[in-house]
Amino acid sequence: MSGPEGRAETPGAVWARQCSLRDAGGHAASGHDVVPRGGGGARATAGTSAANASAGSASTGGLSVGGGANGGGSVPAPPAASASAVPVSAAPQGADLEWDRAVELIRAADQVCLVCHVAPDGDALGSMLALGQALRAMGKGCLASFGEPFTVPAILRFLPGQELLVEPDRMPEAPALMVSLDAAGQARLGSLAARAGRAGALIVIDHHASNTAFGGVRLVDPDAAATAVLVEELIRRLGVPLDGDIAQGLYAGLASDTGSFKYPCTTPEVHDLAGRLLTAGVRPEAVSRELWDRAPFGYLQVLAGALARARLERDAAGGEGLVWTTIARADRDSRDVPYDQLEGVIDQLRRTDEAEVAVVLKETDKGEWYVSTRAKGSVDVGRACVELGGGGHRTAAAFTMGGEPAWIIDRLRAALRVPDETLD
Question: Which residues lie below 8 Å from residue 186, measured CB to CB, with a gap of 6+?
């Protein structure tokens, strides 16, 4: 995606000015999807402008940390970086980034409540836990949570700072200050959406152009490669040096939403930020193993079935080609594979040379179908998913819908179209 005209940038800022991962509104995840719950009908996206208990004793309560999917692996805590290692990096100074107000609110607060979107991915959870640990370093009380199902995905349980997590019903009913991370809309906060609405002040940190402009103070920039980029800048402005644990959460977010530094939003500035995080002590091989390079044997069997069911439609998506498959709940239950283990399936499907668009329909525990889509650049799947009640980025988006898979694919097929030549 291209950045706003006239934006002043200086070295160290990690904004993907030429990233083609455009949001549906203009537009994660990211290699990940961003999906408002309760999708199914078409809806218009809002504009992208954003102009307008103590942490130390927080218990994890009844938190379910993953399933048995990934074994008990963990990433050793990396060493802390010295304060002198913190760069003086200036982020864009656009009016849509209310840095001064956000810093003022956080510095004045005794306790800050953090929330990210339901079913958190690496950017959402990594960014939230990184910010939480920075706040704790400032002496702030901090609680962090996400809406039900309150289960940390197996691939993310290595992230440090999970002692800050509390069950959603343990969050204050009306927090004095709440920070929302990586959620394009308030509905994406699930059972915590109402608490966010009652917060005395709500800071929204997000990088999706389909952001609905909720919250009173917004750090929203669709040109940011990940929410972790914005969080790193906020931490810098708060004067907190990066230590190994904070850096690890940020690196997980950055790596997740750049597809392990493969997507077009991987700019030189993104690599600069990654380098600073490595300097702080992150071990990239350990993080990559947790995020991408491990799975239970049952997953291989589920993957084999999904690939065997794959269908190629060469004439779909404006003649660019569509490949799709389904994974029913019974498919994964029979192999004892948790739902959150399925995210990597689409990465195998999208390798198909004959298809611009790859789609995986995954049946949730509620019986709905979560439809993940990926494109290689010439088709805007984000726009199609918005029409079907979801959202995301130009090349990575999703929606949730009930009904039979064939009917859902019919609707998606009709929504897919090749963008005008004027779009870059």
Answer: 180, 193, 196, 197, 212, 214, 215
Q: Counting beta carbons within 10 angstroms of the beta carbon of residue 39, is it exposed (0 to 12), middle (13 to 18) or buried (19 or more)?
A: buried
Tell whether the model's pLDDT for residue 91 goes beyond 70: no
pLDDT digits (tens, 9 = 90+) for 35-59: 433 333 333 333 333 333 333 333 3
**What pLDDT, in 10s, does the model give residues 160-209?**
999 999 999 999 999 999 999 999 999 999 999 999 999 999 999 999 87
124: which 2 tokens? 């959402």
**pTM of the complete model:** 0.77
* CB-facing half-sphere around the CA of 184: CA atoms within 13 A: 32
| Residue 232: pLDDT over 60 | yes
What string of H, E and C letters represents the secondary structure of the chain? CECCCCCCCCCCCCECCECCCCECCCCCCCCCCCCCCCCCCCCCCCCCCCCCCCHHHCCCCCCEECCCCCCCCCCCCCCCCCHHHCCCCCCCCCCCECHHHHHHHHHHCCEEEEEECCCCCHHHHHHHHHHHHHHHHCCCEEEEEECCCCEECHHHCCCCCHHHECCHHHCCCCCCEEEEECCCCHHHHHHHHHHHHHCCEEEEEECCCCCCCCCCEEEECCCECCHHHHHHHHHHHCCCCCCHHHHHHHHHHHHHHCCCCCCCCCCHHHHHHHHHHHHCCCCHHHHHHHHHCCCCHHHHHHHHHHHHCCEEECCCCCCCCEEEEEECHHHHHCCCCCHHHHCCHHHHHCCCCCCCEEEEEEECCCCCEEEEEEECCCCCHHHHHHHCCCEEECCEEEEEECCCHHHHHHHHHHHCCCCCCCCC
